[in-house]
Amino acid sequence: MIKLEHVSKWVSQGGTRIFLLKDINLEINEGEFVSVMGPSGSGKSTLLNVIGMLDEADEGNYTFLGREVFKLKEKQRAGLYKSHIGFVFQAYHLIDELTVYENIETPLLYQDIRSGERKALVADMLDKFNIVGKKDLFPTQLSGGQQQLVGIARALIASPKLILADEPTGNLNSRQGEEIMEIFKKLNEEGVTIIQVTHSEKNAAHGSRIIQMLDARIES
């Protein structure tokens, strides 16, 4: 599903290259649940952003579902991302001016989906995450755990093949965090590929494979 070959990304400071990713080689198969660990600044989030097509690398090749991502035009890349990838962030990234219902519906507005079908899909997500009663509330009226549930519902609404989660339980208490991990486990059993960045050994253990990063490289 995912193949990174000799992928590097850097920033230049005073004529010196500071590597954010250095010579990354990685393959991830469809249906895997991969945890990425490592100290702060080791390149975990940058790796996730490159895989999620939010960032481009400076060198190397990236193949996603058989397509060479770095060779695609921006519009093609955006289409690939919107059709197949859902992102879950530590800081939720919900839109404060939109209700829970509208936040969850947002990804569908970029696709050619009729209003009736959108309603049915959103209703299904609200039901799945037990947040029907919250649909008319705004993000600021929700607890952290509830905001993260909305974030996950939004990431899943377009039935992505791949979920990328960046510290998805970082702002939650342990009980809420465990609930989120259970949701991910269930999704993975249903065939969704998941890559999560985490500092938590406990969360990482939910994955079928752990990738350790250090100083912009994959260490093991």
Structural features, described:
The protein is an alpha/beta fold and 220 residues long. It has a single domain, classed as Rossmann fold. It contains seven helices and ten strands. It has a six-stranded mixed β-sheet with strand order 6-7-8-3-9-10, with helices on both faces. The longest helix is centred in the last third of the chain and has 16 residues, at 174-189. It is globular, with a radius of gyration of 18 Å.
Topology of this structure?
Elements: E1 2-13, E2 16-28, E3 33-37, H1 44-51, E4 59-64, E5 67-68, H2 74-84, E6 85-89, H3 100-109, H4 115-128, H5 144-156, E7 162-166, H6 174-189, E8 193-197, H7 201-204, E9 209-214, E10 217-218
Parallel strand pairs: 3-8, 3-9, 6-7, 7-8
Antiparallel strand pairs: 1-2, 1-4, 4-5, 9-10
Helix pairs in contact: 3-4, 3-5
Strand order within the widest beta sheet: 6-7-8-3-9-10
* Helix/strand order, N-terminal first: EEEHEEHEHHHEHEHEE
User: What is the number of independent domains?
Assistant: 1
Indicate the CATH architecture: 3-Layer(aba) Sandwich
Strand content: 25-35%
Largest sheet: 6 strands, mixed
CATH class: Alpha Beta
Unreliable stretches (pLDDT < 50, length at least 5) are none
In a few lines, what is going on in this structure?
It contains seven helices and ten strands.
Main attributes?
220 residues; alpha/beta; Rossmann fold; 6-stranded mixed β-sheet; 4-stranded antiparallel β-sheet; 7 helices; 35% helix
